[in-house]
Write a structure and sequence with these properties.
single chain; alpha/beta; 6-stranded mixed sheet; 3-stranded antiparallel sheet; binds adenosine-5'-triphosphate
Length: 256
C-alpha cells in the first residue's frame, strides 16, 4: 500500500536548536497511530512537519498527491471578545452548507450547537466542534494533537470511541498525539514513542512489552506519571531506530 504520509530522515530545528532528528515514519490508509513521549519531545513539531507547517532542516516529508488532512491542533485560543458562532467557525476555512455543518456536529455527538458562541462552550463540546470542523475536510487522515486535553475520564474514553467509529465509518487514517496511555494502548494499531527521535515503535502489545516502553512508562498505575520522568537512561535493542544525536539534550525532559 502507498503511505498517505511518509517522513524520511526528518530533522526539524527552531533557530539553532534541533528538536527532531532522523525520524522515519509512514502512515498507511486506515490505521490508527499514536505518538507518545515526554513534554518537549517534539510530538507537536513532528505533526506540524507532517502537515507542512514546519520546514525540514534535513530529510523530507512526502504526502500523497491531493491528500486531504483534518487537523485538530493542540491549542486554539478563542478570544472571548471576538464573538463567533459554532456555525460560522465550521465554515472556516472552507464554506460548508447548513446540512453539512449539522451532520458533522451530530456525528461528533454535539448536535444543535450551531448558534452557540464558540468561546462559551465547555471543554468537551469545544473539542468535539474542533473534530467536527476537521471532519468537514472529508479527511483521508485525521491528525489530532492532544485532542482530549481538558476532558474528564469518561469524556476522554468517549472521544476515543468516537475516533474509532469514525475510522470504521469513513476508513480514514488517524494520527494522534496523546498522554492518555491506557486508552492509547487499547485504541491504537501502532504506537510511536518519540524523544527527539523514535525511541521504539510497534503494535501496542509489542511496545508495551518493550524494555524501552517499560523504562519510559513503568508498569501499572504509576505508568502515566512515569511518562514525565523519562530520563532516557534506558537501553535500546537493535539500536537502528535510535541514533542518539549528541546535539539533542535529553536531561531537560526530567519534568517530574
Ligand atoms: N515555534 C517554536 N520556536 C522555538 N522553539 C519551539 C517552537 N515550538 C516548539 N519549540 C520547542 O521545541 C521542542 C519540542 O516542542 P513540541 O511542542 O514539539 O513538543 P511536544 O512533545 O509536543 O511537547 P508537549 O508534550 O509538552 O506538548 C520544545 O523544546 C519546545 O520548547
Amino acid at each position: 500500500m502507498t503511505p498517505l504520509i511518509r517522513a524520511e530522515n526528518l530533522a526539524v530545528e527552531y533557530g539553532e536548536t534541533r528538536v527532531l532528528a532522523g525520524v522515519d515514519l509512514a502512515l498507511e490508509p486506515g490505521e490508527i497511530v499514536t505518538i507518545v513521549g515526554p513534554n518537549g519531545s517534539g510530538k507537536s513539531t513532528l505533526v506540524r512537519a507532517l502537515i507542512g507547517l514546519e520546514t525540514p532542516a534535513e530529510g523530507r516529508v512526502i504526502r500523497a498527491p491531493g491528500l486531504r488532512i483534518g487537523y485538530v491542533p493542540q491549542k486554539l485560543h478563542i478570544d472571548a471578545s471576538l464573538p463567533i458562532t459554532v456555525r460560522r467557525f465550521l465554515s472556516l476555512p472552507r464554506r460548508v452548507s447548513d446540512a453539512e455543518a449539522a451532520e458533522a456536529l451530530a456525528h461528533t455527538g454535539v448536535p444543535g450547537l450551531e448558534t452557540r458562541q464558540l468561546a462559551r462552550l465547555s471543554g468537551g463540546q469545544f473539542q468535539r466542534v474542533l473534530l467536527a470542523r476537521a471532519l468537514l475536510m472529508r479527511p483521508q487522515i485525521l491528525i489530532l494533537d492532544e485532542a482530549t486535553q481538558g476532558l474528564d475520564q469518561p469524556g476522554t474514553a468517549a472521544f476515543y470511541r468516537l475516533i474509532e467509529d469514525l475510522r470504521t465509518e469513513t476508513g480514514c487514517a488517524v494520527l494522534m498525539v496523546s498522554h492518555d496511555l491506557h486508552v492509547v494502548m487499547s485504541a491504537s494499531d501502532r504506537v510511536i514513542c518519540l524523544n527527539g527521535h523514535v525511541c521504539c515503535e510497534g503494535t501496542p502489545k509489542v511496545v508495551s512489552e518493550a524494555p524501552e516502553y517499560r523504562a519510559l512508562f513503568g508498569l501499572g498505575t504509576g505508568g502515566a506519571f512515569a511518562l514525565y520522568r523519562h530520563e532516557h537512561d534506558h537501553e535500546h535493542e537493535g539500536g537502528a531506530a535510535c541514533t542518539h544525536d549528541p546535539a539533542h539534550e535529553h536531561h531537560h525532559h526530567d519534568h517530574a
